[in-house]
Every structure is written in structure tokens, then in C-alpha cells.
Design goal:
The chain has three helices and five strands; from the N terminus they run βααβββαβ. The chain has 130 residues and is an alpha/beta fold. It has a five-stranded mixed sheet, with helices on one face. Strand 4, helix 3 and strand 5 form a beta-alpha-beta unit. The chain is globular. Bound molecules: FE2/S2 (inorganic) cluster. The site of FE2/S2 (inorganic) cluster has 11 residues, from helix 1. FE2/S2 (inorganic) cluster (FES) binds next to helix 1.
């Protein structure tokens, strides 16, 4: 919770706990390190990135995942992870959440098996001012 060293602009926390590890979080962590040219526990030379390896961040259903500052990026692949980091390098904020376009939140990736009625309003989100 407390950082005992100066952090980069983007603190990338890659979950490597069991569910994420089973979904190849090792390749996500390697991708993050390779693209940012940074190692776990350190900052990139330009202080844009700090990388941490963390335990479960509570998004196991959408593993593997990483947190960038306050945003969760889920359903990651090395290609998607690279794209997110390159977006951050350009000053963009890639859309957070599940990166698999077939998934809205944490429902099964193969489709709903229960509560299959249509959701009337999918616009609910956390208030933007939070
Ligand atoms: S194990 Fe990675 S979010 Fe839970």
C-alpha cells in the first residue's frame, strides 16, 4: 500500500497469483518489462513506469490482468499488453477493463449460463469524478 521509493508516472502492477499465473501472467510480466525496458521493483530510465509484481487484485475471473495506477486491464495477452503500454507512452489512456471485446464485465468468456435475460441499461459505471 505504501511505496517506499519514488514511483514513475505509471505504476504497473502485474498480478502473478495462481489464477493469473495459470493464464500465463509470466508472459504478461515479461512483456511489461521488455516494452518498458524496466525490471520489477524499479523505474524506467525516463521515470514513466514503475513495475511491481503483486498478489491477487481481485479480478481473477478476467485473468491475466494488471493494474495501471487506478485502472484495471484484464483478459491480457502479450500483444494487448504491448498496445496498452505503447498507448501510455504516447500519453493516451487506453480504455480499461476487459480487453476481450466479447466480455462486458466478469461474465463467462464463453457466454452467460445463468441470469441470461437482457440487461436493460449497460451504461452504469463508477462516477467519473471518483
Ligand atoms: S489471481 Fe490475479 S487477480 Fe486474482
Amino acid at each position: 500500500m505504501f511505496n517506499r521509493r519514488p514511483m514513475g508516472k505509471y505504476h504497473i502492477q502485474v498480478c502473478t497469483c495462481t489464477p493469473c499465473w495459470l493464464r500465463d501472467s509470466d508472459s504478461i510480466l515479461k512483456t511489461v518489462c521488455d516494452v518498458t525496458n524496466c525490471t520489477v521493483g524499479s523505474n524506467s530510465a525516463d521515470n514513466l513506469f514503475s513495475i511491481s509484481e503483486v498478489e491477487c487484485l481481485g479480478a481473477c475471473a478476467n485473468a491475466p490482468m494488471m493494474q495501471v495506477n487506478d485502472d484495471y486491464y484484464e483478459d491480457l495477452t502479450p500483444e494487448i499488453t504491448t498496445s496498452i503500454i505503447k498507448g501510455l507512452m504516447k500519453g493516451e489512456r487506453p480504455p480499461p477493463g476487459p480487453q476481450n471485446c466479447n466480455r462486458y464485465a466478469a461474465e463467462p468468456i464463453t457466454g452467460l449460463t445463468s441470469l441470461t435475460s437482457e440487461v436493460p441499461d449497460r451504461s452504469f459505471r463508477v462516477r467519473p469524478d471518483l
